[in-house]
Write a structure and sequence with these properties.
327 residues
């Protein structure tokens, strides 16, 4: 028969193993919970960066168009520029404040400082653009060439700062990962499509043909937008796709790469034939904006879906942690 001492030893050993296992599980659960909380906070930064660059992109387009018009800027366009500038500034200022509050040396050096440097350069270009927009075309300076060369590059640089933010080091739901990819590809459709649109808007506003150089640029931008749409089509077939995102992807395919693409092709055909565009600037800008807005709506829906999924996962991890601690 087993002695009392042996039995006691075995019981204590079993309890020790159970305690060790429990502590291990608590540690793993807490580690997952902490990592997900950090990831959620970083995704909030990504969201502000994403929206801020989209708002800056419309400002870029309107400034580029008006810098190419013969007369000083009209009040309606001045107001449009100011509105977009205020929206972008609000998003990027909030982004800066959140990064400052993190008090993270790595983020300060690799995210905050580059962000501030880019914003300072953008403001320099804005000041030059503003000074020239109030002048007739023949009195404008180098900003007419500098703006379309520098601002798109600065916007792309800002967008790429997202890579500095934390990558998941724990299990992230596949639907949240997919939503993150959809945010980026919808941004690419909106940004590249917007750059393509700007060239047509200038030509229509001036009633002048599109140069071969600009047509080649448009082809590059449209190809980039199409490549992004191909990725979105691929994601649309993924079993982990959040159901609410599918109608947005389908609408983007049907409207931007359907009806709006037909308008785009007609404009290119008319400039090639040397005939009038048969559409005025306001109508074209409204129709192109409506098409581009679908990409924005898709990105917004994907951001919302991602954050909701992550929050649900965090809540689950928190409940699991409580069970281990209390149990």
């Amino acid at each position: 028969t087993m002695s009392l001492r042996t039995l006691t030893f075995l019981i204590l050993l079993a309890l020790s193993l159970m305690a060790a296992l429990m502590l291990r599980n608590i540690g793993l659960a807490y580690s997952d919970y902490r990592d997900l909380k950090t990831l959620y906070a970083d995704y909030e930064l990504r969201q502000l960066l994403n929206v801020g660059t989209i708002d800056m992109s419309l400002e870029r387009s309107v400034v580029q168009v008006t810098l190419n018009l013969p007369t000083p800027i009209a009040p309606v366009y001045r107001q449009m520029i100011d509105n977009q500038r205020e929206k972008s500034a609000r998003m990027l200022y909030e982004l800066e404040q959140l990064v400052v509050a993190r008090n993270d040396t790595y983020l300060t050096q690799n995210f905050l400082q580059p962000l501030r440097e880019v914003r300072a350069r953008v403001n320099q270009l804005r000041q030059a653009a503003d000074a020239n927009l109030s002048l007739p075309a023949e009195q404008r300076g180098n900003i007419v060439q500098e703006w379309p060369r520098e601002i798109p590059n600065l916007i792309s640089y800002l967008n790429n700062l997202r890579h500095v933010l934390a990558m998941p080091v724990t299990a992230v739901p596949e639907s949240a990962q997919l939503a993150t990819q959809i945010v980026q590809e919808s941004w690419r459709v909106r940004e590249m499509g917007g750059r393509d649109r700007t060239i047509m808007a200038i030509a229509i506003a001036r009633n002048s043909p599109i140069s071969e150089t600009d047509l080649a640029f448009m082809r590059r931008m449209h190809t980039a937008a199409e490549q992004a749409m191909q990725m979105l089509d691929k994601y649309a077939k993924h079993p982990a796709l959040p159901a609410k995102l599918l109608p947005f992807i389908e609408k983007l395919r049907a409207d931007y790469f359907g009806d709006y693409q037909k308008l785009r092709e007609a404009i290119i055909a008319k400039t090639t034939q040397g005939t009038d565009f048969d559409i005025d600037f306001n109508d074209f800008f409204a129709r192109s904006t409506a098409a581009l807005n679908i990409a924005e709506e898709l990105g917004a829906a994907a951001r919302e879906s991602r954050q909701l999924t992550l929050q649900q996962t965090i809540n689950h991890k928190q409940n699991l942690l409580l069970v281990w601690v209390i149990g």
